[in-house]
Structure formats: structure tokens, C-alpha cells
Design a protein that fits this description.
It is built from 12 helices and 12 strands. The protein is an alpha/beta fold. The strands form 2 sheets. Strands 3, 4, 5, 6, 7, 8, 9, 10, 11 and 12 form a 10-stranded mixed sheet that branches.
Length: 421
């Protein structure tokens, strides 16, 4: 075997040659086993902690490189501040997962917004879930719909399944806080109250009576953890605040327009249900950043320079208020740092006056920053399409190259546009 390594021109007998190939591959793997962001890789195991092996052909980056796959939880760096002083990662339509099984005998016809399970989303640092809930099949389901009605070909699963994933996460992580924002089409009396109780989440419930209504600071994250008020739930139906004790979303949250209006460069209009973004009567700001029609292969491009620029635009539109929630599709996809780098910048500026949270020093005066290099997002260069491989707490096989969202191109947008997503 050693002769085979020293003389690559020699011909070896089969068993030795096989050993040569194995050893060569092993050495190659070891050489790049701890590759960092943007460094070349061949598999997820080549990359360092919190990274996976991906690419971004939409930006002309077809060769695989290590890409961030996990968020820095801001409270792990600076704790004890009010909840509204942090920025948290949110997944839009968290339940709408590519490759999720459809109902038996039914082909699902709808859009998809995420790629891995809710459990993995939470493990990767997502702290907010946007869920669409409907009365369906005698239960409450997560679903896309048309005019408030769930169909068997747009349904995903009973909501309690996802809520039990949240309960398991909160149980296993006693210092973490999760926010659930419900697009609410549930008309069953006390339906949501029973649903959350059956999922075991009522014990974590943050009471509406303790939510500030005039733009004041929220309790500190330390206080929320100590009191076990680690689940915030908002509904889009105003009457449920009095009926079920579920906070009415636009009483407490400012929100920019979702879909294409929310990704238009240089503009950050408020959603029509929301108060103006510069209103001082609410202390939480949800920034939507996802196009009307989600396409997996385009997300890496969307999560590069345009996302960072939009964060600045929305910050100014809100009267220099940093968004508390950043909601995106396909949160794992990027050109290297993606939503995770943008989140780090937002928290760094907010919490310590540094250009990234990695530069913050706990207990140090505001503006005291470690010397940390911040990667610059690359500008958009082309609109090619491509695939994806690798994972960090990711649901798919690391060896699979996925062809994005083939299903939605089988149907005209004019048909799919009828469905609420």
C-alpha cells in the first residue's frame, strides 16, 4: 500500500488498489474536515460545526462550499435584556415542508416554504413559527387554503403534531423561548385553547395580561424563563383575545407587507392590518422577507445582499427600530452566511453596538467589540437554477442533490395564486 502511495504511476493488484483509493479518500476528507464558511467541501461532514455543504447556482456558485446552517442564539451572548431587545429568526409557513407526505391517495397541489422538520428548525436556531390553522377533518390542521377553507390536496398534518414538537423542544431546552404566530381560520369554540392544552403547551403560556400594550418594554428574557412563560402565541382573529386569552397579533406586533411588496428594494410598507411601522404603541416588529411565489433554488440569492439591504430599509421605515422577528422561506439556503449572518448583524448592532453579535462582549460597555471579520454578502450576478446538498440537523439525506419545487411548475401560477400561503 505504501508503494502505491509513493508511486502513483505503478499498477497495484486489486486488493491493494482498493486500499489506496480508500486511504486517499480518507486523507482528502481529513484535510477538509473542518472547512469554514465559503471553503470547498464534498459532504456535510467536511464542514465545521454549524455548517453544511451547499451551493448557490442562482448566484453562479455551482461548486459546493460550506454554508452556515445554525443561528447564534443572542441570549447565549448577552442575557437579561427585555424580550423586545432581541432579533429572532422566524420561518414563514413552518409546516409547509418539501417532501412532507400528503394524505393517502391524494396528490398535494400547493406551494412549499421550508425544507426540514419543525424540530430541526428549532434546533438550528429558529425561534418563531408562522402556522396556518384550519378546521379540517374534524380536527385542527396545518394547511394552505383558498378563502379560509382547507382542502385535502392542500392539507399537511394535524396541528397537534407540530405543537408536540414545540413542547418537546421547550421541555428539552428550559432556557429557550418560542413564538407562534397563527394565521387563524379555526372557528371551533375554544378550539385553539384545547389544542394547545392537549399538546402540553399551556404550562409555558405567556399570559396576555403581561403583554405591554403601549409600546413599553417586555419582561426580560431572564424573567420569562424564571416564570416559565416561554411560549408567546399570537392569532390573526381579534375576538380570540377576549374569548381564549390568545393575543391579537396586530395589537402587539408591527409588520411590513408580506410577499413581493415586502422584498421590493428600497421600500418597506406596513401590512394593511398593522399600525404604521414607526408607531410607538407596539414594541415588537415582525419583518417579512419572502416573495409571493417561493422557489427553493432562488432562496440562496434572496438571502444574500438583498436581505441585508432590506433589513436596513425596514429599520429606517420603523423609525430606527430594529425588527424583532425576521421571517423567511427556506431559511437554510444562502450564498454562505445568509439569514444567519444578517441576524448576527441585527443583534450585534442592537445589543452591543458591534457589527455582529460574535463581536459582543458580555458585561462590557456598549460599543466594546472584539475584532471579528464580518463576511460581505455578494451581489446578485445571474439567475441560473441549481441544486442543494448537505445538512446540519437537516431532514434530507446529505448525499441527495434535490431538484427544487418541480411540482409547482406543473400548474399555472394563475391557478395556484388562489391559494393563501
Amino acid at each position: 500500500m505504501s508503494a502505491c502511495l509513493t508511486d502513483h504511476h505503478s499498477l497495484c493488484r486489486a486488493p491493494v488498489a482498493i486500499g489506496c483509493v480508500y486511504l486517499t479518500l480518507l486523507l482528502s476528507s481529513l484535510l477538509i474536515a473542518h472547512a469554514q464558511v465559503l471553503q470547498s467541501c464534498t459532504a456535510a461532514t467536511n464542514c465545521g460545526a454549524g455548517l453544511y455543504c451547499g451551493n448557490c447556482p442562482a448566484l453562479g456558485k455551482t461548486q459546493p462550499f460550506c454554508t452556515r446552517g445554525q443561528a447564534i442564539i443572542p441570549t447565549s451572548t448577552i442575557n437579561e435584556l427585555p424580550f423586545n431587545k432581541y432579533t429572532w429568526l422566524v420561518t414563514h409557513n413552518s409546516f409547509s415542508i418539501v417532501d412532507a407526505p400528503s394524505l393517502p391517495g391524494v396528490q398535494r397541489l400547493t406551494f412549499y416554504n421550508q425544507e426540514d422538520s419543525v424540530t430541526n428548525q428549532l434546533r438550528n436556531g429558529v425561534r418563531g413559527l408562522m402556522l396556518d390553522m384550519y378546521d379540517f377533518n374534524g380536527d385542527i390542521w396545518l394547511c394552505h387554503s383558498f378563502r379560509g377553507q382547507c382542502f385535502n390536496f392542500t392539507a399537511f398534518q394535524p396541528a397537534i403534531n407540530t405543537l408536540r414538537e414545540v413542547e418537546a423542544f421547550l421541555s428539552e431546552n428550559p432556557s429557550e423561548i418560542v413564538t407562534i404566530i397563527i394565521e387563524d381560520y379555526v372557528h371551533t369554540p375554544k378550539g385553539l385553547t384545547k389544542l394547545f392544552a392537549n399538546a402540553g403547551l399551556d404550562k409555558y403560556w405567556f399570559p396576555v395580561s403581561k403583554m405591554p400594550t403601549k409600546g413599553e418594554d417586555w419582561p426580560t428574557v431572564t424573567e420569562m424563563v424564571q416564570e416559565n412563560h416561554r411560549l408567546l402565541v399570537f392569532t390573526s382573529i381579534a375576538s380570540k383575545e377576549a374569548e381564549e386569552g390568545i393575543a391579537y397579533q396586530w395589537k402587539y406586533l408591527l409588520e411590513n407587507e408580506a410577499g413581493d411588496p415586502g422584498v421590493k428594494p428600497g421600500s418597506c410598507p406596513n401590512r394593511k392590518e398593522s399600525k404604521p411601522l414607526n408607531s410607538k404603541s407596539a414594541s415588537l416588529f415582525l419583518m417579512n422577507y419572502f416573495p409571493t411565489y417561493p422557489v427553493e433554488s432562488d432562496a440562496c440569492k434572496e438571502h444574500s445582499a438583498p436581505l441585508a439591504q432590506m433589513a436596513g430599509t425596514c429599520y429606517k421605515a420603523a423609525g430606527n427600530l430594529m425588527p424583532n422577528f425576521l421571517a423567511v422561506n427556506f431559511y437554510m439556503r444562502s450564498d454562505g452566511g445568509g439569514v444567519f449572518d444578517v441576524l448576527d448583524r441585527m443583534n450585534g448592532l442592537r445589543l452591543c453596538g458591534c457589527n455582529t453579535i460574535a463581536a459582543c462582549q458580555a458585561g462590557a460597555p456598549f460599543g466594546s467589540c472584539n475584532n471579528v471579520t464580518v463576511p460581505s454578502p455578494n451581489p446578485v450576478t445571474n439567475t441560473a437554477t441549481g441544486g442543494f446538498t448537505g445538512s446540519v440537523q437537516f431532514a434530507r439525506s446529505a448525499s441527495t442533490v434535490h431538484s427544487p419545487n418541480n411540482l409547482i411548475f406543473l400548474f399555472p401560477f394563475s391557478f395556484l395564486a388562489f391559494f393563501i400561503f
